[in-house]
């Protein structure tokens, strides 16, 4: 045996070829296999996404639903001992979605923020794409066109009024006690402790949703991000609460409708439809949400329709958010 084992090991390291990181196709195939295995035993509950009406902002992100095991990929770093994440922007390897969500929470908590005054208005502009209500016999593929519209809404920060354009006219109406809330005052009063926030969500699901409580809580947390200007403490609590829901997933390869690479965090429903929130890869800013088929699926019943793997069933992208002094005026 050599008297200098460390030198021998160093010589072996220099002589051994550097490992080649797994290809994109290999990573995608591994993810798909894990998704299929984890969702094989889930009950199949068919639910058709409907493009929300202009006034229906409460659940605009669709139904973020049922859980599977999280998966992301980390490869060895030839330059050192610390694993290298293939998810850009992460200081730690994205071994699972919980790591990503806690990182997003830490960034959100430190993000600069200016709260609106009670008499100011929060403006949110969202591009929404969903299936057109065409012939149900049409097979929905990744290439099937989506119907697109842009929603622009102003909500008074004190929660008393929401305003939207209808037929070219600015129409004001009551916010109506939505769940989750859609006004700044109510959102700013939500718990900042993730356990308390999650308990609050569970407690406000309604009797008919208790069977899928984890999925519905995840849906509501995503809707909270989509429809509001969320203060840093509450935004951090949302991500931490999501991390506590069993079955959260992460997909580092998502792209939103504007062509921006994104991190997608979500749930898989019925083994075929992934409901995701989209975060910027570097800043973790909320970008939007999407529903995407990860397997072929036949809707049962009187209105059958075949959906092919890779089909985007719904895509929401936040185009703008800000504070104004009156409705009808963009920031």
Number of strands: 13
Helix content: 10-25%
Model regions low in confidence, pLDDT < 50 over at least 5 residues? 11-95
How many domain modules? 1
Number of helical elements:
7
| Termini separation | 73 Å
Proportion of β residues?
25-35%
Name its key features.
single chain; 331 residues; alpha+beta; nine-stranded antiparallel sheet; 7 helices; 13 strands; 25% helix
Task: Tell me what the structure shows.
It is built from 7 helices and 13 strands. A hairpin with a 5-residue loop joins strand 9 and strand 10 (286-293). The chain has helices spanning 5-15, 24-39, 97-109, 184-188, 194-203, 213-226, 232-244, and strands at residues 74-75, 84-85, 121-130, 147-156, 162-166, 169-173, 249-255, 261-269, 273-280, 286-293, 297-299, 305-307, 312-324. It has 331 residues and is α+β, with helices and mostly antiparallel strands. The protein has one domain (5-324). The model is unreliable at 11-95 (pLDDT under 50). Helix content is 25%, strand content 26%. It has a 9-stranded antiparallel sheet with strand order 6-5-4-3-13-10-9-8-7, covered by helices on one side.
Summarize the structure.
The chain is of the alpha+beta class.
SSE layout and pairings?
Layout: H1 5-15, H2 24-39, E1 74-75, E2 84-85, H3 97-109, E3 121-130, E4 147-156, E5 162-166, E6 169-173, H4 184-188, H5 194-203, H6 213-226, H7 232-244, E7 249-255, E8 261-269, E9 273-280, E10 286-293, E11 297-299, E12 305-307, E13 312-324
Antiparallel strand pairs: 1-2, 3-4, 3-13, 4-5, 5-6, 7-8, 8-9, 9-10, 10-13, 11-12
Helix pairs in contact: 3-7, 5-7, 6-7
């Amino acid at each position: 045996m050599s008297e200098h084992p460390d030198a021998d090991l160093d010589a072996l390291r220099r002589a051994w070829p550097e490992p080649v990181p797994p290809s994109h196709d290999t990573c995608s195939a591994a993810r798909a296999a894990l998704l299929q295995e984890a969702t094989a035993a889930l009950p199949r509950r068919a639910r058709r996404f409907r493009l929300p009406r202009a006034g229906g902002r409460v659940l605009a992100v669709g139904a973020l639903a049922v859980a599977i095991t999280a998966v992301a990929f980390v490869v060895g770093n030839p330059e050192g001992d610390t694993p290298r994440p293939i998810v850009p922007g992460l200081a730690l390897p994205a071994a699972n979605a919980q790591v990503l969500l806690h990182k997003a929470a830490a960034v959100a908590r430190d993000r600069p923020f200016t709260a609106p005054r009670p008499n100011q208005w929060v403006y949110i502009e969202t591009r929404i794409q969903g299936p057109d209500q065409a012939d149900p016999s049409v097979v929905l593929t990744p290439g099937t066109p989506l119907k697109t519209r842009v929603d622009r809404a102003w909500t008074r920060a004190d929660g008393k009024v929401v305003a939207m354009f209808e037929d070219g006219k600015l129409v004001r109406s009551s916010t109506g006690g939505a769940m989750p809330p859609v006004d700044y005052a109510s959102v700013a009063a939500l718990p900042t402790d993730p356990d308390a926030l999650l308990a609050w969500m569970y407690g406000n699901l309604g009797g008919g949703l208790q069977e899928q409580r984890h999925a519905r809580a995840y849906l509501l947390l995503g809707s909270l991000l989509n429809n509001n200007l969320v203060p840093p403490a509450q935004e951090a609590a949302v991500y931490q609460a999501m991390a506590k829901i069993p079955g959260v997933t992460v997909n580092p390869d998502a792209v939103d409708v504007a062509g921006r690479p994104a991190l997608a965090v979500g749930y898989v429903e019925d083994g075929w439809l992934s409901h995701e929130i989209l975060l910027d890869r570097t800043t973790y800013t909320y970008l939007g949400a999407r529903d995407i088929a990860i397997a072929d699926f036949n809707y049962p019943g009187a209105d059958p329709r075949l959906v092919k793997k890779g089909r985007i069933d719904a895509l929401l992208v936040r185009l703008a958010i800000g504070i104004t002094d009156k409705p009808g005026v963009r920031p």
